[in-house]
Amino acid sequence: MSSSPSETVVHPLQEFADRVADAVGGSAEIQFDTVKVRISPDQWVAAHVTARDDLDLVFFSWLSAIDWSNEVASGDRLSAEVEERIEVLSALSDVTDGRLVVLSTDLDKEDLRLASLIEIYAGANWHEREAHEMFGIVFEGHPNLIHLYLPDAFVGNPLRKSYPLLSREVKPWPGTVDVEAMPNQDGSDEPTTENPEA
Amino acid sequence: MTIDTDAIRHLSEASVSVELQTEDMTLNIGPQHPSTHGVLRLVARVDGERCFDVKPVIGYMHRGYEKLSEVRSYPQITTIVNRIDWVSGYANEVPFIVAAEKLMQLEVPERAQYIRLILTEMARISSHLVFMASYPLELGAATPLFFALRERERVLDLLESVTGGRFHPNFNRIGGVKPAYGSGSTTRKQPQDLPAGFFAETRDAMDKVKEAVDQLEDLVAGNEIILARTKGVGVLPAEVVVAYGVSGPNLRASGVPFDLRKTQDYLPYDRFDFDVITGANGDCWDRWHVRLLEIRESVKIVQQAVDGIPSGDLQAKVPKVIKVPRGETYVRAENPKGEMGYYLVSDGGGGPYRLKIRSASFSNISILPWILEGILVPDIIAIMGSLDFVLGDVDR
């Protein structure tokens, strides 16, 4: 079990993190007061049942994903090479002490399938639809896996790193192309603004 | 020809007692309906006066902030996130800034934290006052609107005096808060602080808000029509609410005493005395009442914070070009609408590698299909209004 880089003392959440990791059968890490427990995709549903029933993590906060990619169509490249994968995250909380755990699993980009959590947390419905359209993850067992935000005919998964930010393609950043030249920056010595009181 | 009146009467009674075979109708509400607080569309199957299979259609306002923030620098992102829940724009900035500060391991000066806290609570008061104004209006009572919006304007004036903006303050900086509007700019090397008279005006405004809350309570809580339209309508049981991730006042109205201000340490709320308000039944009435009482608690917090604000800097020492070290963290905060959080993944660059925005209204209205199943058509408005969502917060 790792801890956040700067810490040598036991983190106050360490005991909680270990308890969750033991119960769901994963490995816990604490980064900057956030408990993340890594599990394998086939444990996904069982881990959530355990979290809800045995660990009192009854509050479904959110579900989303991270596209770990070495090639990016927009934004900055990663500073170091990573293993290409889609990491799916779901955040569960209790409603007493405010303890939250992020369950994480890695999916192969060639095989983006994961079991749906709807039967366990009804709130997973929209979050899974969002992750489906944004990352292309197929949640098996989801009754209505259609676009949530995007138009029905939309093609592509916008939050994938391979998906270009189209506005950037049209107008590169910084957006100087539409900005008038600043006074005196066009090479002329003529003052472009006049102060009547000067 | 003789008419058998008895036979005619029997026939007419028989035709009434035959079960009416009506066709289901599809009812489309929105996306431009005033009660939808923006552009939300509902498609419902209506059988007589009851509606079934309600399908909310969202995304009319999706602005792709998560993708956008991958090509923006950290200081630029606060301008974007201001616009998520525009009724309480200030409150959206705080968890994001705190997340970035956490990765940078910055110690934020206490005075800046207090200012953040005061402004967050002001945002909460103004957001709840919008609800106090709009909800009775949706039920047909126009008068509370004027009381609530008048007081909201006081609070917005204060927010504006500090930040320069009524809705989109963009006042937080990594490491502290922006030198206040009207108090000298950084280039002039003058002491930077809140505008003169801010604390006195705040005390005054808080007293007036408190009075107005009493008035609103008299005006609305005693109204028989409002009671009839909200009591026992749209009941949300606690176990359903948590499974859908419904948070904030909607969660507390269902009797769950959970408030992130009490459990998280994103702002120094532990130094203030305030109560977590809960409702008993989880109906529309409770959701209204919890928000009303929460305004009083927020007023209490602001008053204590104004009295106890420490002196000192408004900014920690930060490099000119903000680079956030590598790491991941999730910071969540109790926003006026519920849990707002940012899962921030940084790779050590000037902008995030990935920013997951968890907004409250998104989860709060995902419960609509469940709660609107089998209810009467006029109750749709009462229930939707009571959830107090903002479409910018749903679509992000």
Describe this structure in words.
Chain A has 198 residues and is of the alpha/beta class. Chain A has a single domain (14-164), classed as Beta Polymerase, domain 2 (2-Layer Sandwich). Helices cover 19% and strands 22% of the residues of chain A. Chain A has helices spanning 14-24, 44-53, 124-135, 166-170; strands spanning 27-31, 34-38, 59-68, 85-93, 100-107, 113-115, 138-140. In chain A, the strands form two sheets. Chain A has a five-stranded mixed beta sheet, with helices on one face. In chain A, strands 6-7 form a two-stranded parallel ribbon. Chain A is globular and about 50 Å long. In chain A, 34% of the residues are buried. Chain B has one domain: Cytochrome-c3 Hydrogenase, chain B, CATH 1.10.645.10. Chain B has 16 helices and nine strands. In chain B, the strands form three sheets. Chain B has a four-stranded antiparallel beta sheet. A three-stranded antiparallel beta sheet of chain B has the order 6-7-8. A two-stranded antiparallel sheet of chain B has the order 4-5. In chain B, β4 (172-173) and β5 form a beta hairpin. Chain B is globular, with a radius of gyration of 24 Å. The N and C termini of chain B lie far apart (75 Å). The mean pLDDT of chain B is 85. The interface between A and B is large, with 46 and 52 residues.
Strand-and-helix sequence of chain A, N→C?
Answer: HEEHEEEEHEH
Contiguous uncertain segments of 5+ residues of chain A: 194-198
CATH class of chain B: Mainly Alpha
The spatial strand order of the largest sheet of chain A comes to 1-2-5-4-3
Largest sheet of chain A: 5 strands, mixed
CATH superfamily of chain B: Cytochrome-c3 Hydrogenase, chain B
Instruction: Give me the Rg of chain A, rounded.
Output: 23 Å
| CATH top level label of chain A | Alpha Beta
Count interface residues per chain for the largest interface.
A-B, 46 and 52 residues
Instruction: Please state the CA-atom Rg of chain B, rounded to the nearest Å.
Output: 24 Å
